[in-house]
Specification:
It is built from 19 helices and twelve strands. The protein has about 425 residues and is α/β, with parallel strands linked by helices. Strand 11 and strand 12 form a beta hairpin. The chain is globular.
Length: about 425
C-alpha cells in the first residue's frame, strides 16, 4: 500500500490543525497508528482528555475513516501534477516539522525544495487593501530580501501578499505561496496567473486536498504554515482586526521572529502593526534590518549585501500634518450608549462577568466574557459567544497579543492569570 495513504487517512480522521506532533512522535508514523489496536491507543493515553490535545471521540473517528478514500485524492494529484508530500518525505519543510500541529500532508505544485535549501525564509504579509506607503514598503523590503536569496513566503491574497510574491519573482528569487483552500478550487480567480507564476518560481502549497473550497476557519489555520515554514514574519500593514495578526500570534507561539513596519500613528490601517511593535516586535525600516538579525546564518552561505538600501520611507512624509491640520483618518472613539430596556441575545452574553481589558474590540470583549476560569475548548467558546469561527479566532488572536488570554494547547484557551 502507498504509505501516503496512511498520512491522508490520519489527517482526514484528526482534522486540520490537530496536535499531530505529540501523537506521531509517540508512534513514529501514521502506519503504526493505523495498525495499533484500540486497546493500545486507549492505554497510550493518546485520546485521553488533555494528553495529546486530542478529543476522546477522535478514536472513534479513526475507526470510521476509510483509508481507501485517499486513493482518489492520489489519483487526482497524479493526473494534475500535484505532489503529495508527507512528514516522512525528505522534501517536507524541516522548519514546519518543529511546530505542534504540522500538516500530515502537503499538496504542492512546483518545487518546494527552496524551503530546505535556503538558509532563510521570511513571511511577508499584510492587508488586502494597502496604502501607497504599504505597497512601497512591501516591495522594497521583499526585493531587498530576495536580492540576498531569501525565500519569500506569503499567502497569495490581493494586496501586500501579491506585492511580496511579485517582488521576489522580479529579483529572480524563490517564493512560496501558502493557500487556504485546495488546488483547482477556483478561489480568487483574479490571482490565478500569479499562482501559476509562483509555481514556476518556487511552489504553491496547501494542506487541503484538491478542489477543497475555501471555508470559515481555513485561512487562520493556513497562517500557522506561513509562519511555520519561515524563520520570521514581517507585517507590513495591519489594523487591529486584521487576519494578519493571526499569523503574528502563530509566529509567537512557534517562537519565530516577528518584524513590523511602523506606520502613521493616526491611521487605523497601522494600528495593529504599531501595537505589535509596542508589544515587542522588531521595528524594521528596510530589508537590511531583517538581514542583520540573521547575519550569522547567512555568513559563508551566500554573499551578504552591505549596501545601504533605500527605505520604504524615502519620498514619503511620515508626519504630513501641520499643527492645525486634521488627520485624514482617525482611530474611531466609541460613543457611550444609552441603556436599553431589552438587549439582543449576543449583547446579553456581553454582560460584564469580569473586568474587561480596556481598548479591545467588541468581539474580543464578548469572547473574553464567555471564557471561564478553567481551560476552555475553542468549540465551547464559539458556541457560547454565538460568533463565527473566523471572528472568534481573530478575537482570540487580539486577546493573545494583548496578553489577556493564553492558548494552552489542543485548541484550549485560558484567561491569563486565571
Amino acid at each position: 500500500m502507498d504509505k501516503r495513504l496512511y498520512w491522508l487517512w490520519l489527517q482526514s480522521a484528526l482534522g486540520f490543525g490537530a496536535n499531530t506532533n505529540a501523537l506521531v512522535s509517540a508512534y513514529g508514523s501514521a502506519e503504526r497508528i493505523y495498525e495499533a489496536s484500540d486497546d493500545d491507543l486507549r492505554l497510550s493515553g493518546a485520546f485521553s482528555e488533555g494528553f495529546f490535545g486530542l478529543k476522546a471521540q477522535g478514536l472513534q473517528k479513526l475507526k470510521q475513516t476509510d483509508i481507501r478514500a485517499g486513493e482518489s485524492v492520489l489519483e487526482y494529484c497524479e493526473k494534475n501534477y500535484i505532489s503529495v508530500i508527507t512528514p516522512d518525505d525528505p522534501r517536507y519543510p524541516k522548519r514546519l516539522l518543529g511546530i505542534q500541529n504540522y500538516p500530515l500532508a502537503l499538496f504542492v505544485r512546483g518545487d518546494i525544495s527552496c524551503l530546505n535549501e535556503s538558509s532563510l525564509a521570511i513571511g511577508v504579509i499584510g492587508t488586502r487593501k494597502p496604502s501607497e506607503y504599504g505597497i512601497k514598503a512591501a516591495e522594497q523590503i521583499a526585493r531587498g530580501l530576495a536580492k540576498n536569496r531569501v525565500t519569500i513566503v506569503s499567502g497569495g491574497a490581493l494586496g501586500i501578499d501579491s506585492v511580496a510574491h511579485r517582488s521576489a519573482i522580479a529579483e529572480k528569487d524563490k517564493t512560496v505561496l501558502v493557500m487556504g483552500c485546495g488546488h483547482d478550487s477556483r478561489y480568487l480567480r483574479e490571482n490565478e496567473a500569479l499562482r501559476e507564476e509562483v509555481t514556476r518560481n518556487g511552489a504553491t502549497i496547501t494542506e487541503y486536498p484538491p478542489l477543497t473550497m475555501a471555508g470559515k476557519g481555513y485561512f487562520p489555520l493556513r497562517n500557522r504554515i506561513i509562519s511555520g515554514v519561515s524563520n520570521g514574519v514581517v507585517i507590513i500593514e495591519a489594523n487591529l482586526r486584521s487576519g494578519t495578526l493571526n499569523t503574528a500570534a502563530h509566529a509567537k507561539k512557534q517562537r519565530r521572529d516577528i518584524f513590523a513596519v511602523p506606520g502613521d500613528v493616526s491611521s487605523v490601517s497601522y494600528a495593529g502593526s504599531n501595537k505589535l511593535i509596542i508589544d515587542g516586535a522588531h521595528a524594521v525600516f528596510s530589508a537590511q534590518d531583517i538581514l542583520e538579525r540573521y547575519r550569522f546564518e547567512l555568513a559563508g552561505k551566500r554573499e551578504f549585501s552591505n549596501r545601504e538600501p533605500k527605505t520604504p520611507f524615502d519620498g514619503i512624509d511620515l508626519f504630513p500634518f501641520g499643527e492645525n491640520d486634521a488627520p485624514q483618518e482617525k482611530i474611531p472613539v466609541k460613543k457611550a450608549q444609552k441603556p436599553r430596556a431589552a438587549a439582543p441575545k449576543c449583547e446579553e452574553k456581553a454582560k460584564i462577568l469580569k473586568t474587561v481589558p480596556e481598548g479591545i474590540s467588541k468581539n474580543a470583549a464578548l469572547v473574553y466574557n464567555v471564557m471561564k476560569t478553567e481551560d476552555m475548548p475553542l468549540d465551547d467558546i464559539i458556541r457560547e459567544s454565538s460568533l463565527s469561527v473566523s471572528k472568534v479566532l481573530i478575537a482570540l488572536t487580539e486577546l493573545e497579543i494583548g496578553g489577556h488570554v493564553t492558548c494552552v494547547g489542543g485548541n484550549n484557551y485560558r484567561v491569563t492569570g486565571a
